[in-house]
Structures are given as structure tokens and as C-alpha cells.
Backbone:
């Protein structure tokens, strides 16, 4: 690891696939509240929550961490998706609101499988220009740090990035490839486990579908973690007793999150002709 890395990031490999999108201005929180699935106006400053951006049909376009850094600064941590494209699409809805939408390529996101030094739960710890987030639990401690990019960033560590992605899946956090975006409702992706959407706040894209599904109890499918054969891709069908019963929504190595019926019949599951086994999801990532 380069010697000129900031001290705050020593021992924290960079998560090169993560991107940061900043909403800054007097109307930043109000704008985010109107666009995303979580209750942004109720979020205290220096706290974060899970959130999602949905299509008008209530399908999930992106899942992310939403940080209210201060009253005029909201920061999105995007583990997946094209940040530039998302920024461009959000810009279309700014109209006369006082908010600047900007991809923060000057900042990096790094992680560690250690407990945070100061952050706790949804509370963000601020040390100069560095933000520390608690993104784990006692069962699987994890810390995320966000700060200025060093002059020479370390090379990506594929092994660490895979381990981080797998830990996301173990917590039930969907990592959506391009072919799985705009396919699933928040309920199907289990975002209720993360407190990733609100059914009480005002309108946002897809809110009517989300609320109807919630209050009428129409959700018939949910997320389940499976251990599968290496090489399985998102979009693969999950089979039981010779019939397709679900779809792999997110995959990392030999772990996959699949959208399956809430009530399963007796019989082994398989993906790609290889038997798949259910794995319990970890709790503790809701914010």
C-alpha cells in the first residue's frame, strides 16, 4: 500500500466500485426526500440510512446509503450503478430547487472488517475531512470510511472487494447488476429489513405501488440467501421439483440473493443444475 495514503485510510482497502453523489444546497434534503424511498427530512444531521431510487412503477433502480452530512449536504454512497448517469437523471428533476447534484470523484470509499472507532449505528463520526460509518454488527463488524482521495490510490484488491460484496449479501443487502435494475419492488428485495423505505412519508416515485403492496399485504415473494456453485450469474433461475420458482437478483462468488416465493414447497432448490442451499441472513444492518 502506498506510503502517501492518508493515515486515516491505512488498513482500509479502497472499494473501487463504490461512487459518491453529492446533493448540496438549501433544498438538498427536501429534494432527496421527494426523490428517494426513505424519510430524509426525519433523518438527523450526521446520521445515515438505507434508501433507494425507484421507477414510477415502484421498481428498484438503485439501493444506496444516504448520509445527511449537515442541513445542506446529502451524500449518496452508491455501491452499484453509473453515478454519472444517475446524477444526470436526477438533474432533470431539480427545476428551481436550490440544490447542486455532483459526482464526487475527489473522494474515495474504503472499508475494513473491523469495528468502527467512533461511529455507532446510524451515527456518523467526523474526523476532519474523513467520515466514518458503522456498516456492521457484533456478528460481522465492518467500517466504511469516506475522505479525500490520495495522490496515489492503492491498486484494487479483488479478493477484498469480493469478500465485502459477500458480506453485503450475508446482511441481505442486494447488489444489483445492470440486468437486475428496475426488476424488483423494495419488498421483493427485502429493503424492509434495512428500513430502506417509508410508507408514511409523502409522495416519491413509486410510492403508490410500495404503499399498496405494504397495506394490502400483496407481497408474495421475498429475498433469500443461497449458497450456489461458483459462476452463477444474476438473472439465473432457481428451480424446485423441475420448475422455475425464482430468480437470482444478486451474486457474489458462491453466495446469491434470490427472489423466491414466501411459501416454498418441499424439495431441494437448484441453480444452473447444481443444488443450492439456504443460508440464514444476518441481522443488524438496519439503520
Residues:
Amino acid at each position: 500500500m502506498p506510503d502517501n495514503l492518508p493515515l486515516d485510510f491505512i488498513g482500509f482497502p479502497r472499494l473501487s466500485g463504490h461512487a459518491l453523489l453529492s446533493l448540496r444546497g438549501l433544498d438538498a434534503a427536501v429534494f432527496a426526500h421527494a426523490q428517494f424511498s426513505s424519510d430524509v427530512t426525519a433523518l438527523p444531521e450526521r446520521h445515515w440510512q438505507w434508501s433507494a431510487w425507484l421507477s414510477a412503477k415502484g421498481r428498484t433502480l438503485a439501493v444506496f446509503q444516504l448520509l445527511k452530512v449537515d442541513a445542506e449536504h446529502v451524500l449518496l454512497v452508491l455501491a452499484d450503478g453509473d453515478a454519472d448517469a444517475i446524477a444526470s437523471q436526477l438533474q432533470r428533476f431539480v427545476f428551481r430547487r436550490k440544490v447542486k447534484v455532483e459526482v464526487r470523484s475527489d473522494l474515495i470509499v474504503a472499508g475494513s472488517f473491523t469495528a468502527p472507532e467512533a461511529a455507532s449505528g446510524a451515527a456518523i463520526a467526523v474526523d476532519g475531512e474523513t467520515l466514518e460509518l458503522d456498516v456492521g454488527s457484533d456478528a460481522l463488524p465492518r467500517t466504511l470510511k469516506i475522505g479525500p482521495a490520495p495522490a496515489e490510490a492503492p491498486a484494487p484488491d479483488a479478493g477484498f472487494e469480493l469478500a465485502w460484496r459477500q458480506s453485503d449479501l450475508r446482511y441481505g443487502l442486494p447488489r444489483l447488476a445492470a440486468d437486475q435494475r428496475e426488476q424488483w419492488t423494495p419488498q421483493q428485495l427485502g429493503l424492509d429489513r434495512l428500513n430502506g423505505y417509508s410508507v408514511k412519508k409523502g409522495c416519491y416515485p413509486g410510492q403508490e405501488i410500495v404503499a399498496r403492496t405494504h397495506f394490502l399485504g400483496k407481497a408474495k415473494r421475498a429475498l433469500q440467501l443461497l449458497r450456489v456453485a461458483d459462476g452463477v450469474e444474476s438473472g439465473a433461475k432457481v428451480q424446485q421439483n423441475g420448475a422455475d420458482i425464482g430468480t437470482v437478483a444478486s451474486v457474489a462468488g458462491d453466495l446469491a440473493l434470490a427472489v423466491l416465493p414466501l411459501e416454498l414447497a418441499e424439495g431441494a432448490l437448484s441453480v444452473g443444475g447444481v443444488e443450492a442451499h439456504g443460508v440464514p441472513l444476518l441481522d443488524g444492518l438496519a439503520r
